[in-house]
Design a protein that fits this description.
Arc Repressor Mutant, subunit A, 221 residues, 2 domains, alpha/beta, Rossmann fold, 3-stranded antiparallel β-sheet
Length: 221
């Protein structure tokens, strides 16, 4: 009987991206081999966690020797599906967050290319942002998805618009949505959704800040 592969948790997938960035840093420093301990120390993790995360995908290093940075990096790129360029569209590109994302040049270094911008506001339709091109009306999403092979849509729209946009995204044939709107969307069989809750991220930071504050004597504050 074929052994069923255990699916890694989402936290592990997120750490793979962190490992990849760290490996790039080691490579820039001229380091060719790294141990799980060294990788963990650089990222403030437990080395057992590093080994467990990588073990979901196979055996990449040798005990007592470590990981070849070049080989492990290539493996992570393939695991994360970054060996080919992924086309991205931004919905809500006329807003501040949308414009900032559209102007960010770091996406292409990670093999993501923003190829289309959309909005509903007639005052921003036609504006050129970040060198990607003119902002289109959001009703053109299905047409653009097909013509430009867009796989991912980033939503930076007001909460009252997110459901309408998500319905259009599902009809368009897009495969994934990154949602910044303060309204949680649920993945479907056709569209994978990741919700980015900025308030929750700030609350997490506040928690860590409060830990340090509790260590300070009250009379020292």
């Amino acid at each position: 009987m074929e052994k069923k592969q255990i699916q890694p948790p989402q936290a592990t997938i997120r750490r793979l991206s962190v490992y990849l960035r760290c490996l790039n840093g080691f490579d820039d420093e001229g380091i060719t081999v790294v141990s799980s301990q060294e990788l963990a120390d650089r990222l403030d993790l437990n080395p057992a966690q590093v080994r467990k995360d990588l073990a979901y995908f196979g055996e990449f290093g040798k005990r007592g020797v470590g990981y070849s940075i070049a080989k492990l990096r290539d493996h992570l790129i393939k695991i994360l599906g970054l060996e080919r360029k992924r086309m991205v569209g931004i919905v809500g590109a006329g807003g501040r967050l949308g414009k900032a994302l559209a102007s960010y040049r770091g996406f292409e270094k990670r093999n993501f290319k923003v190829v289309a911008l959309f909005d509903k506001d007639p005052h921003v339709i036609g504006q050129v942002v970040g060198g990607t091109g003119a902002i289109r009306h959001f009703s053109e999403i299905p047409k653009a998805v097909k013509e430009l092979s867009i796989e991912i849509l980033i939503l930076t729209v007001p909460v009252e618009a997110v459901d309408e946009i998500f319905e259009l995204a599902q009809l368009s044939g897009v495969k994934a949505v990154l949602n910044f709107a303060p309204s949680k969307l649920i993945s479907t069989d056709e569209v994978m959704v990741h919700n980015v809750d900025l308030a929750m991220e700030l609350e997490s930071l506040s928690y860590h800040l409060s830990l340090g504050e509790k260590l300070v004597p009250p009379d020292a504050q």
